[in-house]
Design goal:
mainly alpha, Endonuclease Iii, domain 2, Endonuclease III, domain 1
C-alpha cells in the first residue's frame, strides 16, 4: 500500500507538470450546460458532443426551456450522440425536475444530483468537481480506468471497466483536493499518450513510474 501511495504521489506531481490546466473538454458556460453535455457524452466522444451543443444550447438555454422541449425534436437534434431516445427522455425529465424541485438550478450536492433522471456518479462528480469545485469523488471513464490500471494504481478493481472500485481505489490513494484534477489529467493522458492501442510509452513522462511501460499495445 505504501509503495502504491508513494508512486501515486509521484504520478500526481508529474501530471501537474504535464497538464497544469486539466479540465473537461466539454464546452459549457454554466452548470446546466455542463450537466447536459456530460449526459450527452455517455458512449459518445466529447468532440461529437461539442458539435451538437452550440445549437442545442441556443434553442434550450436553461432548464425552463428544455423542460418544455418536445422529445421528437430533441431526439433529432442529439441523434448523432447515440442512444438519443433515452438521452432525450432523460434530459427533458431532468430539466423538469430541476424546475420543480430546485428552482431551475443545478443542485450542489451528490445526493440531490443523483435524484435527477440520467445522472449517475460519473456525471455528478464531473459537475460538482468541475463547476462547483467540490471534490466528492472521481470521474471514471474508459481513459481513467485504462491508465490507472496500467499505472498499477488499482487494488480492488477487477478490470479497467470496474468504475465503482476504480473510483474507490483512486480516492483511497490520492488527496481529496486532487480528485477532480487527476480525473481530467488522466483523461487527457489517455487521449494523447496512453492510448488504448499502441500507447506511446517511449514518449511518456510517466513511463519511469509505470509497471506496464513497453508491455502493452
Amino acid at each position: 500500500m505504501e509503495q502504491r501511495r508513494e508512486r501515486a504521489a509521484r504520478i500526481l506531481e508529474t501530471l501537474r507538470k504535464l497538464y497544469p490546466e486539466a479540465t473537461t473538454a466539454l464546452h459549457h458556460r454554466s452548470a446546466f450546460e455542463l450537466l447536459v453535455a456530460t449526459i450527452l457524452s455517455a458512449q459518445c466522444t466529447d468532440e461529437r458532443v461539442n458539435k451538437v451543443t452550440p445549437e442545442l444550447f441556443r434553442r434550450y438555454p436553461d432548464a425552463a426551456a428544455l423542460a418544455k422541449g418536445k422529445q421528437p425534436a430533441l431526439e433529432e437534434q442529439i441523434r448523432s450522440t447515440g442512444f438519443f431516445r433515452n438521452k432525450a427522455r432523460n434530459l427533458i425529465a431532468m430539466s423538469q425536475m430541476l424546475c420543480r424541485k430546485f428552482g431551475g438550478q443545478v443542485p450542489q450536492t451528490m445526493a440531490e444530483l443523483l435524484t435527477l433522471p440520467g445522472v449517475a456518479r460519473k456525471t455528478a462528480n464531473c459537475v460538482l468537481g468541475t463547476w462547483y469545485g467540490r471534490n466528492e469523488g472521481m470521474v471514471v471513464d474508459t481513459h481513467v480506468g485504462r491508465v490507472a490500471l496500467r499505472l498499477g494504481l488499482l487494488k480492488t478493481a477487477r478490470d479497467d471497466k470496474d468504475a465503482v472500485r476504480i473510483e474507490q481505489d483512486l480516492m483511497e490513494l490520492l488527496p481529496r483536493e486532487a480528485w477532480t484534477f487527476v480525473s481530467h489529467a488522466l483523461i487527457w493522458h489517455g487521449r494523447k499518450t496512453c492510448t488504448a492501442r499502441k500507447p506511446k510509452c517511449s514518449e511518456c513522462a510517466l513511463a519511469p513510474l509505470c509497471p506496464s511501460a513497453g508491455r502493452v499495445g
